[in-house]
Amino acid sequence: FLNQAYQLTIRKKRTMATIAQNLNELKEQLPSDVTLVAVSKTKPAEMIMEAYETGHRIFGENKVQELTDKYEQLPKDIRWHMIGHLQRNKVKYIAPFVSLIHGVDSFRLLKTINKEAAKYNRIIPCLFQIHIADEETKFGLDENELFEILESADYKSLSNIQIKGLMGMATFTDDMEKVRSEFRCLKTLFDKTKNNYFSSDDAFSILSMGMSGDYQTAVEEGSNMVRIGSAVFGERQHH
């Protein structure tokens, strides 16, 4: 038994060293203008604390329930990013504290975020999610839908949201040239959106693309925010 407990302690120390090590190595690799979102979905609070103790403060979750639970348990200076698909009826749970919502994929969702933010006298930063992948399973707007929203009078009346940029997820494939061309399309759209709608708005500055498997390619193609889980915390356990 003692042996078992000892092994457990050793294993825990090893993970701690690894999380800190992984984070530091990633940050050394990434250009200084690229923000690292440590994707902590399915990870326990202790592991997040290990990352927190290295000085890291930006964490991403993809389920509202898990996000609110962790917000309650963990230090209040953590900047929580909602990176998953967000349903309108769940916005109210994260509106008081969320730092950035990555997945705004409809105008109806944006209006709900605006309405819930107003209740807390907050302006919630958001990214529009753009559909760049071949897969039907991924959410997002296309260029026409995006511009339609930005040109509507309705959009211009929303005062409790701030559009900070765009987000996209590439096709899940080993074909890195395909991934690269999808990222390149998103960067082109980002530049076009910036020039046409946000040219005098410094806040519109985030291009969130790239995850553990493809973040290097994303950064080469102009990403300045990467969402990295397994390369920080190790492979995730599935519930």
Task: Note down, in words, how this protein is organized.
The protein is of the alpha/beta class. It has a single domain, classed as Alpha-Beta Barrel (TIM Barrel). The protein is built from ten helices and eight strands. The chain has helices spanning 2-29, 45-52, 64-73, 91-94, 107-119, 143-151, 153-156, 176-197, 215-220, 230-233; strands at 35-39, 58-61, 79-82, 100-104, 124-130, 161-168, 206-208, 225-228. The chain has an eight-stranded parallel β-sheet. Helix 4 links the parallel strand 3 (79-82) and strand 4 (100-104). The longest helix is centred in the first third of the chain and has 28 residues, at 2-29. The mean pLDDT is 93.
First-last Cα distance: 28 Å
For CATH, the homologous superfamily is named as Alanine racemase
Alpha-beta classification: alpha/beta
Return the CATH class: Alpha Beta
Strand arrangement, largest sheet?
7-6-5-4-3-2-1-8
| Helix-residue proportion | 40-55%
The biggest beta sheet is recorded as: 8 strands, parallel
In total, how many beta strands? 8
Query: What is the CA-based Rg, rounded?
Result: 19 Å
Tell me the count of domains.
1
Low-confidence spans: none
Mean pLDDT: 93
SSE series: HEHEHEHEHEHHEHEHEH
Shape, per Cα inertia axes: globular
Helix run count: 10
Q: What is CATH's topology name?
A: TIM Barrel
Which CATH architecture?
Answer: Alpha-Beta Barrel
